Amino acid sequence: MIKTTQISDQTDLFGFLYRHPTLTLAILLGPPLIWLLIFYLGPLLALLLQSFYHLDPFTGLILRKLTLATYRELLTPANVDIFVRSLTMALAVTLADIVLAFPLAYTMVRLASPRWKGFLYLSVLLPLWSSYLIRVYAWKLILAKEGILTYLLAHVGLQGWMEKILQLPGIGGPSLAVSNLGIFLVFLYVWLPYMILPIQAALERVPDSLIEASADLGAQGWQTFRYVIFPLALPGILAGSVFTFSLTLGDFVVPYSLGNSSYFIGQAVLAFQGTSGNIPLAAAFTVVPMGIMIVYLLVAKRLGAFESVS
Amino acid sequence: MLARIPTWLRGVSYAIYGFLYLPILLIAIYSFNRARFGLAWTGFTFDWYFSLFQNALVWQATQNTLVLALVSTLVSTLLGSLLGYGLYRYRFPGKKILQGLMLLPVIVPDIVMAIALLLFYQFVRFYTGLFELGLGTMILAHITFQIAFVAIVVRSRLQLLDPALEEAAYDLYANTWQKLRYVTLPLAMPGIQAAALLAFTLSIDDFVISFFTSGPESLTLPILIYSTARRGVTPEINALSTLIILTTLILVVGFPLRSAPHR
Fold it and tell me: Is pLDDT larger for residue B231 or for residue A293?
């Protein structure tokens, strides 16, 4: 009896693998890891290497010699402006998305009927699955100078208000479509589902009994929110903010299709890579958001951002 | 029981839902507007859909988009599932680092990956002549960003399973192959399907990485929309967008219902 199993085990490839878990692991992980090594780490290294090259301003040729000159160029006031503008926008969009996402996520979680809940959940997911370009582009219809919003505001007699807002420095512009306010609105819109879903996942884990207990102990509605619900939702908020922040930081489609001549990081990368052919500078430009996001992720992880989602 | 949601909160929530859907509805409505320019409603028409169907460029782009999405989803689902299963089942040195690295494509802005791949292709082409930009390089790029998403979804679904099930299979004298074939794979299947669907929609929707890794011949729908819309709002693009949204809607709503009837 014992002998036969031994024989069949020896002839059986899977029996052999069972006794050699390291080999099994290598077979499982080998192909995906080799792929990621070549097509993921390879490109990132190529990017890093390029950022240490430098474009000679006189000959227009790229000097393939390691130097920090490109990073020095990165710190010129014009470029620092781009970083500040992008970071401010990413921060503003993230905060506004939290404000909009929270009530929605809360309503979704606290609604009694599971059917209705499922429907609302799917309704948040669906815009995410419809093309992002199309959703950006829809806003051109709304925000353009002769767009829907202008039309509507004129009908209710509020166009004076909009003109006042558009005259504000730093926010306004000739029309909503080419103002920073317009860019902000579109970012707010396209990334909103990325904020709703993690907050919803976090709130889903708050047991009803905790909220009841808070009420039993005499907490007012806002106290329960401030001391019970909000702290427990914080990991979800952080996870969502990783997405909204990163997506805003690197995007070039929104400012490109709506914006004015002041660049955001994504646009700068596109311009340096394409029109001006300064690939080292484009590479150095991308290293910054990558660095920011890695730090952001580490901080968020330490604060427990991904415990509720993954 | 719990206090009900206050009416104002309910109102605010539905207003935010409106905000999510209004722009998409506008596109659909304007795809039926007779006027070529401007926003005034001049009558209902299907003309823009007809002219879309006669546009050879649109057909070419649709074909490229589908080939790209199908091939990349197939490969990335295979590789990503292996990775997801390995991460779920085994402990090994460097696992933490690998998990951290896998999060990178999810959180690092697309443009970083796009430029990195472009430089990498240039670099290899310089020495070997391989990787001429086109559908091939786009497929490689898509697989690369899809793998991480697939692995994360598959692993998190596997973690919901009872580990005793796999042990029970061994107790009942299943060999490794039988265990994989009759226990692990069927249990992992809903996760793998969900991951494949995610990979597919990510590929169809991807613009930034496609834009940088594409060649002159490999136009996809997002690239077509981008380059057309930059010149101005056209009713054909509204019609095309409406069709794309409808297609994804059918795909997404139709799939999960069939693949996961219970739970």
Answer: A293
Fold of B54-258: MetI-like fold (1.10.3720)
Encoding tokens for residue A87?
């970071």
Chain A residues whose beta carbon lies within 8 Å of the beta carbon of residue B92: 25
CB contact under 8 A, A39 and B30: no
Domains in chain A (CATH in brackets) are: 2-41 (no CATH), 77-302 (1.10.3720.10)
Residue A305 pLDDT class (50, 70, 90 cuts): low
Task: Kindly identify which residue of chain B lies nearest to residue A282, measuring between CA atoms.
Answer: B115
Chain A contact probe: residue of B9, B82, B99, B112 with most A CBs at under 10 A:
B112
DSSP conformational letter for A168: S
Q: What is the dihedral of CA A302, A307, A308, A310, to 10 degrees?
A: 120
Rounded Cα–Cα distance for residues A33 and B247 (Å): 34
Report chain A residues whose CB lies below 8 A from the CB of B27: 134, 137-138, 141
Output the six-digit token pair for A231: 């702290």
3-state secondary structure chain B: CCCCCCHHHHHHHHHHHHHHHHHHHHHHHHCCECCCCCCCCCCECCHHHHHHHCCHHHHHHHHHHHHHHHHHHHHHHHHHHHHHHHHHHCCCCCHHHHHHHHHHHHHCCHHHHHHHHHHHHHHHHHHHCCCCCCHHHHHHHHHHHHHHHHHHHHHHHHCCCCCHHHHHHHHCCCCHHHHHHHHHHHHHHHHHHHHHHHHHHHHHHCCHHHHHHCCCCCCCHHHHHHHHHHCCCCHHHHHHHHHHHHHHHHHHHHHHHHHCCCC
Among B residues 58-87, those touching chain A with beta carbons less than 8 Å apart: 79-80, 82-83, 85-86
State pLDDT tens for residues A229-282. Answer: 888 888 888 888 888 888 888 888 888 877 677 788 888 888 888 777 788 888
Question: Which whole number is the average pLDDT over A71-92?
Answer: 87
